[in-house]
């Protein structure tokens, strides 16, 4: 079979382009997309504001925050925790009062049942000239009427028989408030966040003669030891003893040999080297997840 204009219909292979085109038109099959550079956070940007940090601080897990934004976040979280605790305590008091009221009602019902049984234990007059069938006829009728489930006996014909009337519909109980976590947690790692665990860090500005504002520059910072450019594609680490940010290559080849801070000669340990959590470019497969996947219905043969 020959080619028909621009479309090749003689191919024996279902190509990737044809599969993507059919999936897009039909709406079936999982949809994958790869993030571009504009979708990634820069390594020197705050995890809350997504803007370059003015007073950068780093958590023990390596997440970077602007100190002002982080303090505001902590204060807001504490307010929310206090509000949720207040709601929880209010709900707890209401539950206790409901339990007391229910206990009082049960006790009152037991007393009423006891009084009713005591009052029913009396001697009834017995007529020896009447048969047992005649004597029990009225009682059996009353018992049958009381046991009937019909809505037309014992004056029930005046009641509303429709279960969908708003006054007869069941009521839904309010949603119970769970006891909130009283500790402020990091929005990125989920671990407990404390101000004493934060380490202030310092980036070394690149001296390239560019007078543009910092946010518009592609090259903002460099390693103070090797003078290498810092970016999303360059693994970096913060030194807890001095607060300087250097490349991981500098840490592996220079700093780990003597375990001394090159800026103040302080003795260092492995905990004093905090790798920076960074985003990733559209081509470098490091840092954050680079692909998004949306599951959709799938056609099965």
Task: Describe the model.
- By secondary structure, the chain is an alpha+beta fold.
- Helix content is 31%, strand content 10%.
- The longest helix is centred in the N-terminal third of the chain and has 54 residues, at 67-120.
- The radius of gyration is 38 Å and the shape is elongated.
- Mean pLDDT is 79; it is low at 1-5 and 281-286.
- The strands form four sheets. It has a three-stranded antiparallel beta sheet with strand order 3-2-4. A three-stranded antiparallel beta sheet has the order 8-7-9. A two-stranded antiparallel ribbon has the order 1-10.
- The protein has helices spanning 16-26, 67-120, 132-147, 248-258, and strands at 31-34, 56-58, 64-66, 199-200, 204-205, 221-222, 236-239, 245-247, 273-275, 291-294.
Extract low-pLDDT stretches. Answer: 1-5, 281-286
Can you write the helix and strand succession as a string? HEEEHHEEEEEHEE
Straight-line distance between termini = 27 Å
Residue fraction in strands: 5-15%
The gyration radius over C-alpha positions equals 38 Å
Average pLDDT confidence is 79
Question: What fraction, in percent, of the residue positions are helical?
Answer: 25-40%
Strand order of the largest sheet: 3-2-4
Helix/strand structural class: alpha+beta
Strand elements, count: 10
* Largest β sheet strand count, sense and barrel closure: 3 strands, antiparallel
The number of helical runs is 4
Shape from CA axes?
A: elongated
């Amino acid at each position: 079979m020959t080619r028909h204009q621009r479309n090749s219909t003689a191919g024996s292979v279902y190509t990737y382009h044809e599969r993507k085109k059919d999936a897009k038109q039909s709406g079936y099959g999982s949809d994958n997309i790869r993030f571009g550079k504009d979708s990634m956070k820069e390594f020197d940007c705050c995890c809350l504001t997504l803007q370059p940090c003015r007073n950068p601080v780093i958590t023990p897990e390596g997440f970077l925050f602007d100190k002002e934004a982080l303090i505001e976040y902590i204060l807001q979280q504490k307010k929310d925790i206090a509000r949720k605790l207040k709601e929880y305590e209010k709900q707890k008091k209401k539950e206790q009062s409901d339990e007391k009221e229910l206990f009082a009602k049960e006790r009152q019902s037991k007393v009423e049942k006891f009084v009713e049984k005591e009052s029913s234990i009396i001697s009834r007059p017995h007529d020896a000239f009447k048969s047992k069938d005649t004597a029990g006829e009225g009682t059996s009728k009353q018992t049958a009427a009381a046991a009937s489930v019909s809505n037309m006996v014992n004056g029930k014909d005046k009641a509303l028989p429709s279960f969908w009337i708003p006054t007869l519909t069941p009521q839904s109980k309010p949603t119970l408030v769970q006891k909130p976590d009283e500790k402020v947690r990091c929005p990125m790692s989920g671990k407990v966040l404390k101000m004493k665990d934060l380490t202030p860090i310092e980036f070394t500005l690149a001296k390239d003669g560019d007078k543009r504002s910092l946010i518009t520059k592609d090259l903002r910072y460099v390693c103070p030891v090797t003078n290498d450019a810092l970016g999303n594609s360059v693994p970096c680490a913060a030194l807890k003893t001095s607060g300087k940010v250097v490349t991981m290559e500098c840490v592996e080849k220079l700093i780990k040999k003597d375990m001394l801070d090159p800026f103040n000669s302080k003795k260092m340990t492995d905990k004093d080297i905090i790798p920076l959590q960074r985003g990733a470019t559209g081509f470098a497969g490091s840092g954050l997840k680079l692909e998004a996947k949306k599951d959709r219905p799938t056609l099965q043969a």
